UniProtKB/TrEMBL annotation:
Signal peptide: none annotated. ATP binds at N183, T219, L220, G221, K222, A223, G224, G250, D251, N276. Keywords: ATP-binding, Carbohydrate metabolism, Cytoplasm, Kinase, Magnesium, Metal-binding, Nucleotide-binding, Potassium, Transferase. The lineage of its organism: Bacteria, Bacillati, Bacillota, Bacilli, Lactobacillales. The keyword Cell membrane does not apply. The gene is rbsK. The active site is at D251. Belongs to the carbohydrate kinase pfkB family. Belongs to the carbohydrate kinase PfkB family. Ribokinase subfamily. This is Ribokinase. It comes from the Bacteria. GO terms for biological process: D-ribose catabolic process.
Length: 301
């Protein structure tokens, strides 16, 4: 069982020729709405790839919140830990994509940053009955800290996806983290090492491991994934596929990893390979949650 403490957004993507100049009005070509937020994406991924999933987070009491709750419920995710906060809007991301494929993202964090350690404590049973607890940085740090400390006390393994990137992670959070999974950019911002290949990933991973995390996993886009534990390290190459939209690749990878990893980490390399296989499917499809594959789409090798 996997529990996610994280963000829930409604994503609205506007496809347009170009973004308007100040004062200018333009027509857009296409509008697509979908469920989003790193937390919700990872929850959907873990569930589709075989885990039982519970979610801890918050939405507003607005229509969008109801819509997002329904979406997660329909995906068979336990939503008992999702608070509905009356004084807050549900998180939303507004994304423009121009003809060059360039995107711009504006986020209303809303309820995502309003849920408190107290609300996390109310969901303690969801955490303590899990194998893994996963968090990102789209919610308040103090709530993540509370969740990780409840997990640790119960022997539940913790996975931190330090996204969006921040320059330094509080040592007390790192001390509660079993596995950290940054992408190249996040690893670089955290360590100051320009990460782009196996050697640079190794350098960055060593720095992160020095801060007390036992397993470091750095996703390297089409190069695959670099991992480092106390006893082993290496690069697991990505599958060679034609990527058309890499949105949610990292979220798929994390959900996949958590859904197959044994709590004693004994099958780490197989779990990372599974993560590569799952996210290679995501990058070949348009969209975020829509692109995330189901377990039976992944062919054993
Ligand atoms: P993020 O989406 O957080 O930036 P990455 O770009 O590192 O994360 O992608 C996560 C994982 O998705 C990679 O480790 C890899 O397994 C897979 N992936 C990403 N891009 C490609 C690609 N072009 N071809 C194959 N696999 C990919």
């Amino acid at each position: 069982k996997v529990t996610i403490v994280g963000s829930i957004n409604l994503d609205t993507t506007l496809y347009l020729q170009r973004v308007p100049e100040p004062g200018e009005t333009i027509r857009i070509q296409k509008l697509i709405t979908s469920g989003g937020g790193k937390g919700a994406n990872q929850a959907i991924a873990a569930q589709r790839l075989g885990a039982k999933v519970a979610f801890i987070g918050a939405v507003g009491t607005d229509d969008v919140g109801q819509q997002m709750l329904n979406l997660l419920r329909a995906a068979a995710i336990n939503v008992d830990g999702i608070a509905q906060l009356a004084d807050h809007t549900t998180g939303q991301a507004f994304i423009t994509v121009d003809e060059q494929g360039e995107n711009r993202i504006m986020i209303n964090a809303g309820a995502n940053t309003a849920f408190t350690p107290e609300q996390v404590r109310q969901s303690q049973p969801l955490i303590t009955t899990s194998d893994f607890l996963i968090a990102q940085f789209e919610t308040e740090l103090k709530s993540t800290l509370e969740a990780f400390s409840l997990a640790k006390k119960a022997g539940v393994k913790t996975i931190l996806n330090p996204a969006p990137a921040i320059a330094s992670i509080p040592p007390e959070l790192l001390a509660l983290t079993d596995i950290i999974v940054p992408n190249e950019t996040e690893a670089e911002i955290l360590t100051g090492v320009h990460v782009y290949d196996e050697k640079s990933a190794q350098l960055a991973a060593t720095k992160l491991a020095d801060s007390g995390v036992s397993i470091v996993v750095i996703t390297l886009g089409k190069a695959g994934v670099y991992y480092q534990t106390a006893s082993q390290q290496g690069l697991i190459p990505a599958l060679r596929v034609k990527a058309i939209d890499t949105t949610a690749a990292g979220d798929t990878f994390i959900g996949a990893l958590a859904s197959v990893l044994q709590p004693d980490f004994s099958n780490l390399t197989e779990a990372l390979l599974f993560g590569n296989q799952a996210s290679a499917i995501t990058v070949q499809r348009l969209g975020a949650q829509d692109a995330i594959p189901f377990k039976d789409e992944i062919t054993p090798d």
